[in-house]
Amino acid sequence: MPGINSWSPILPETVWSKVASTLRHELGEGPYNSYVAPSALRQGPMGDPVLVTPTLYARDWFARNALKRANELWSQIDPESRSLDLKSRVEFDDQAKIVQVAPETLTETVAPLASPSVLPSAAPVVNFQDAAARVAGLQERLTFDTFVPGRGNEFAYTMSRQVASWADGHFNPVFFHGPYGYGKTHLLNAIAWEARARRPDAKIVYLTAEKFTSTFVKAIQDRSTAAFKDELRGADLLLVDDVHFIGGKTSSQEELFHTLTALLETNKRVVFTADRPPSHLNEIEARLRSHLSSGLVCALDVADQSLRLGIVERKLDQLSMRLGAAQKPHHDVLQFLADRVPGSIRELEGAVNTLAASAGARLGSLTLDEAMALLQPNLKVSAERRVTVDEIQKLTADHFALKQADLLSERRTRSVARPRQVAMWLCKQNTTRSYPDIGRRFGGRDHTTVLHAVKKIEELLQSDEQIAKDVEALTRKLRG
Ligand SMILES: Nc1ncnc2c1ncn2[C@@H]1O[C@H](COP(=O)(O)OP(=O)(O)OP(=O)(O)O)[C@@H](O)[C@H]1O
């Protein structure tokens, strides 16, 4: 079988996918899902690979705990000996901006571009040649053409197309929420590309909430808030990704509130994404929260098996074409990927890339056994010893000096409620149990309680050092 070096140069995405899957195994599911999985590989101004983390906190965590190892692994796989750089999303965007645009440009306005129909919609890897796309913070491959609709995202997809068509009578603002790695950023990018293609004259602004905050803070320091306000309030379509990041940042919330009301008053369109619905954004003040939910609130759910299969199929089709494979991969290989690769669509994509990179032009003729062997690192975590809910409850109770019965009880004091949330989070990460199933095993609680617990712990992992340590310690113990 041709090895990975048989079709060089090797794509940075392929190297990263292999590095990430080893890190996942070595760091454990909890830390991996909190800090590595939500990060994305991008290309720096000199063509160097950069791991872009969603927050500064995640960047620091990765620098402390995984960067050295990631570079070691990277150098073992990459024949071109590139080394991996690390930046938070804000740092990365700022760097791109310094390279590409005048300093007075405040936000990431989408520059005029070719229509999506002439974009390389089949290409699974971003074409970084288009400086405008890089400055805009948009990724070329994230169009409607490359998005696979299905159960879990169908409504969000339909609404996204509607917003992008500039049709009248739509809800405003539109608010998409869902777990990480299931297509929110993809849809926001796709809206921007299509809206741009339909109305090249329109001013479309795409930015993350973190970018909004950092740019606003800088504008205050530079006494240039008027320019900041003009830039955003002049948008015909404003797309704000990951709005939950604005939680706890009072002045940014206030500014976003005024931006939003100004745009709504003039019938300009606004779309948000977040990891939870507005009603659960407890650190966002009530009046902004209420405006966020005043249009359409639309959930993206985790993908079911048939959507996972559809995504695998689409991505492997594209890769087969690029690799010149004579035929499409066998159905049992597709089914295996969809069923057995753990995690979100982001991880599923990683496994598909690994398989394609390892098999090269033989992709179409791979047997199931060969595919399983090639994917071993991606599957390691799930193939390891099964962890049970009972085991998690006992370990967690022990760790926090409680009894297992406390976790199942009605007690709501913080000293019991927080460990219970940690245990629920660990169950979601380390078992295949559904939210309702986990709820049932925690004294017959509702699935929304589990959902809330998982979100809460994910949030605390970014901000609370102690919880991060507890979760890491427990994850290590669970993995034996
Ligand atoms: N339905 C889909 N069809 C095709 N690709 C998808 C789909 N859903 C997700 N993906 C891919 O999975 C990856 C993760 O998606 P995306 O970045 O949009 O997730 P997200 O929900 O915004 O996550 P985060 O909260 O971490 O930002 C992307 O590469 C995206 O292209």
TrEMBL record:
Family named by the database record: Belongs to the DnaA family.
Residues where ATP binds: 181, 183-185
Residue ranges of domain Chromosomal replication initiator DnaA C-terminal in the record: 388-457
Annotated stretches, region: Domain IV, binds dsDNA: 360-480
Domain topic, free-text comment: Domain I is involved in oligomerization and binding regulators, domain II is flexibile and of varying length in different bacteria, domain III forms the AAA+ region, while domain IV binds dsDNA.
Keyword set includes DNA-binding: yes
Descriptive protein name: Chromosomal replication initiator protein DnaA
Quaternary organization: Oligomerizes as a right-handed, spiral filament on DNA at oriC.
Record keywords: ATP-binding, Cytoplasm, DNA replication, DNA-binding, Lipid-binding, Nucleotide-binding
Function: Plays an essential role in the initiation and regulation of chromosomal replication. ATP-DnaA binds to the origin of replication (oriC) to initiate formation of the DNA replication initiation complex once per cell cycle. Binds the DnaA box (a 9 base pair repeat at the origin) and separates the double-stranded (ds)DNA. Forms a right-handed helical filament on oriC DNA; dsDNA binds to the exterior of the filament while single-stranded (ss)DNA is stabiized in the filament's interior.
Gene behind the chain: dnaA
InterPro entries named in the record: AAA+_ATPase, Chromosome_initiator_DnaA, Chromosome_initiator_DnaA-like, Chromosome_initiator_DnaA_CS, DnaA_C, DnaA_dom, DnaA_N_dom, DnaA_N_sf
PANTHER family on file: CHROMOSOMAL REPLICATION INITIATOR PROTEIN DNAA (PTHR30050:SF2)
Subcellular location: Cytoplasm
Positions of region (Domain I, interacts with DnaA modulators): 1-109
Domain AAA+ ATPase: start-end pairs: 170-298
A Pfam family recorded for this sequence: Bac_DnaA_C
Domain of life: Bacteria
SUPFAM superfamilies documented for this protein: P-loop containing nucleoside triphosphate hydrolases (SSF52540), TrpR-like (SSF48295)
